[in-house]
Each structure stands twice: as C-alpha cells, then as structure tokens.
Amino acid sequence: MNVKDIQILMVEDSPSDAELAVEAFKQSRVVNTLTIIDNGGDAMEYLQRKGKYCDAQLPDLILLDLNLPVKNGHTVLAEIKQDPLLKRIPVIILTTSESERDVLESYNLQASAYITKPVDFDKFITIVKDIQHFYFVVATTPPNGGRND
User: Fold this and answer.
1) Which residue has the higher pLDDT, 70 or 121?
2) Is 28 exposed, middle or buried (0-12, 13-18, 19+ CB in 10 A)?
3) Is 123 exposed, middle or buried (0-12, 13-18, 19+ CB in 10 A)?
4) CB-CB contact of 116 with 95 (8 Å)
5) Domains of the chain and CATH, by start
6) The pTM is what?
7) Residue 37: what are its φ and ψ, rounded to 5°?
8) Where is 51: in which H helix or E strand?
C-alpha cells in the first residue's frame, strides 16, 4: 500500500484511548484515515454500510476493543468473520483484558492479533506505530477487506 490513503477503523469506547491512537497515527509517516466508533452496534452498521454509514469506506484494518457497549468485541469479531465481504479484513484486538479466556476466544474467532493496551502513554504510542508499520509496510493485506467493487 504505497501512496494510497489507508482506512483504519478503531472501535473504542474510551475517549482517552481513542485520543492516544489519534496522536500515534498523527506521528506516523503513513497516510491514513482513522475512523473511531464507540460501540459495537454502530461498528457493525458502519462495516455493513447501513443507515448513517451508507457511504462508509471499508477499512483496511480494524482495531477492536472487547469491552464495548451495545455489542461486545467478541460479538463484533464473530459477525465480521462470518460476513463474506468483511472476513478478510485484519482485526486486531486492542484491549485492557489480560484474561486467557479472552485471548483464546479472540483467536478462536479468527482475530489477527491480540494486544493488551499498556497504561503508559509512550508504550501505547509505540504499539500503535508498530501495528501500523507491520500491517502497512511489512505485510501485504487485501485492499479494503478484499472487496472487488
């Protein structure tokens, strides 16, 4: 993904964590658009381009918290991976939970990675930059979820 504007969807209900991510992406050298949605129900409407999100562009990467209102992260992840138009989008779980059960369930639902959010600002910035570097510099990902339209 060279000069293309990279679409990133962050599903995060913590305003402070969302702000940290915005700051980290601003500091990176990769051109991106970061969309933040604060609950699982709206995230699925966005991904399915329903209602107020009918003109939404599918993301190239999803950063998904587990502890969300309306629909929790595991429910959102399961719905993404069951949808033929969304299932190829890499989904990284970015959450405060260190629970082995949450880790196992996330990978069972085909999460691309599971990362526990650090409480330290600088470490959080580093993790977001590392995610971006890996997925948009090192790895090859399908454009916008692999859609052909």
Assistant:
1) 70
2) middle
3) exposed
4) yes
5) 6-137 (3.40.50.2300)
6) 0.90
7) -125, 135
8) none
Query: 78-82 long-range contacts, Cβ below 8 Å, gap at least 24?
Result: 78/109, 79/44, 80/44, 80/47, 81/109, 81/110
CB atoms inside a 10 Å sphere around CB 55: 6
Distance CA 39, CA 146 (A): 24
User: Tokens at residue 75, please?
Assistant: 């429910």
Cβ neighbourhood burial of 85 (10 Å; 0-12, 13-18, 19+):
middle
CA distances (Å), 54 to each of 8, 25, 36, 49, 119, in order?
A: 17, 25, 16, 4, 35
More confidently predicted of 113 and 31: 113
At 96, list the tokens: 């405060």
